[in-house]
Amino acid sequence: MTMIWPTAEPPVAERWRAWPAAEVFPTSLPGTTPSGARTAYVLAGIAPETPCADAFHRDADLRGCLTALRATYVDSTQTFVATAGIAVLTGPPPRQDAPRGTRPATVRPYTVLGGPAELFGARQYITGARASSDSRYVVMTAAGYTDGRPYTKKEIVTPRLRVVARELAAALHRRLTG
């Protein structure tokens, strides 16, 4: 059954259900490098809707999570890859500090076969970010390199990789809540 909203735009809380996947996860999102140069994050693939326990790490603290939406993006240089996960909650998210450490509890990577994101999986995510507000959405990212290099405890996260994780989380959160 399709919902008809009295205005052209569905309420923020219903956008995840009312918008087509291409509206939630656009084919391209603008970004900037740490030096200020423009870049783009290009959609590699969208995962099927997934139960929260399968899409996010157990320690991500997403109480009240109804469902998870995930997509993987690659930067325009095809060097960096990140999976963005949107947790749809029953209400506002619990307050949480920014993820700490190199490899925070975040979304589980979604591998997209047949392109630059095909070597990105659970062993390859190096860092992540979280974007949330008082809305019912939390966006988390897991970022790494397209060459498939695995995470090591001695991994030094480049500023560029941190920017990819933060920008993608923030951009998708703004789309849903703005």
Task: Describe it.
- The chain has 178 residues and is α+β, with helices and mostly antiparallel strands.
- It has one domain (18-177).
- The protein has four helices and six strands.
- It has a six-stranded antiparallel sheet with strand order 1-2-3-4-6-5, with helices on one face.
- Strand 5 (127-132) and strand 6 form a beta hairpin.
- The radius of gyration is 16 Å and the shape is globular.
Question: Concise description?
Answer:
This protein is of the alpha+beta class. It is built from four helices and six strands; from the N terminus they run ααββαββββα.
Indicate the overall shape.
Answer: globular
Secondary-structure class? alpha+beta
Strand content is 25-35%
State the helicity in percent bands: 10-25%
Gyration radius, rounded: 16 Å
| Count of all domains | 1
Average residue pLDDT: 91
Number of strands: 6
Give the biggest beta sheet: 6 strands, antiparallel
Q: Please state how the strands of the largest beta sheet are arranged side by side.
A: 1-2-3-4-6-5
**SS summary, helix count:** 4
Low-confidence blocks of residues: none
Distance between the termini: 26 Å
Secondary-structure element pattern, one letter each: HHEEHEEEEH
